[in-house]
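User: Just a sanity check before I run the rest of the batch. Below are the structure tokens for the first item. I only need the designed sequence back.
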């Protein structure tokens, strides 16, 4: 009958569309290195080494010829150090913040550079046997590792200052009713830290990737600029929360 489309004709039409896709974006494929019985996530290692190399190079350049009146990259790095000191001081406290500046600063700088690398470095140009390169923080393994390090840091801070018994006794203050909630909080803190950072960075890279495929000229540029801003905010949020958790562990309960 005129106007009817057979199932075979529909399949032929779908095969034609599949032969000429308008856009394609693969998610979930990864490059793995096999070292003995160990399976290593190669993509994350490659991009993490690039971020580490950038930070080491900037540090060497800033401290190679230190001037009494700083200028250039030395001035920028001293400003960054002062910013990180203030961040740690505001969250941990003026008396106890100094030993934690390197930890909080490393978290912020690595996450900041890693986030921006996802927007500024053309990782997609480098072809891999499987998967593709992207920001290290767009992988859940990286963000979970940072979240677990943060948990270990605030446990160490509290126990080293108060002792094991006094630290965990604080879970029941000011009332024992809070004990299960405090224990649950220790599990939710790393979960919220890791998934917040991972979700925001991955979503930003996916949105930019889809827009570049669909509208490859000027439309993705405002989204990329917004992504740079949100990437910096996410690094600041992670470092601030990490410092706040350490400060909370060091706080004396009365």
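Assistant: Here's the designed sequence for the first item:
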């Amino acid at each position: 009958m005129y106007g009817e489309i057979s199932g075979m004709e529909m399949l032929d039409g779908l095969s034609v569309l599949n032969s000429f896709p308008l856009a394609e974006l693969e998610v979930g494929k990864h490059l793995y290195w096999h070292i003995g019985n160990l399976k290593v996530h190669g993509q994350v290692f490659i991009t993490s080494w690039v971020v580490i190399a950038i930070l080491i190079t900037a540090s060497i350049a800033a401290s190679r010829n230190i001037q009494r009146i700083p200028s250039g990259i030395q001035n920028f790095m001293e400003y960054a150090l002062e910013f990180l000191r203030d961040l740690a001081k505001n969250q941990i406290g003026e008396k106890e913040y100094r030993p934690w500046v390197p930890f909080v600063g490393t978290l912020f700088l690595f996450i900041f550079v890693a986030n921006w690398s996802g927007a500024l470095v053309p990782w997609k140009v480098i072809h891999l046997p499987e998967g593709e390169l992207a920001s290290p923080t767009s992988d859940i393994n990286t963000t979970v590792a940072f979240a677990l390090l943060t948990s270990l840091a605030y446990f160490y801070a509290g126990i080293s200052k108060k002792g094991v018994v006094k630290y965990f006794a604080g879970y029941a203050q000011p009332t024992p009713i809070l004990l299960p909630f405090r224990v649950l909080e220790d599990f939710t803190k790393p979960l919220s830290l890791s998934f917040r950072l991972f979700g925001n960075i991955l979503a930003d890279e996916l949105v930019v990737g889809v827009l570049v495929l669909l509208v490859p000229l000027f439309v993705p540029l405002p989204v990329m600029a917004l992504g740079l801003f949100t990437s910096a905010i996410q690094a600041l949020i992670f470092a601030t929360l990490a410092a706040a958790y350490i400060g909370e562990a060091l706080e004396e309960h009365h």
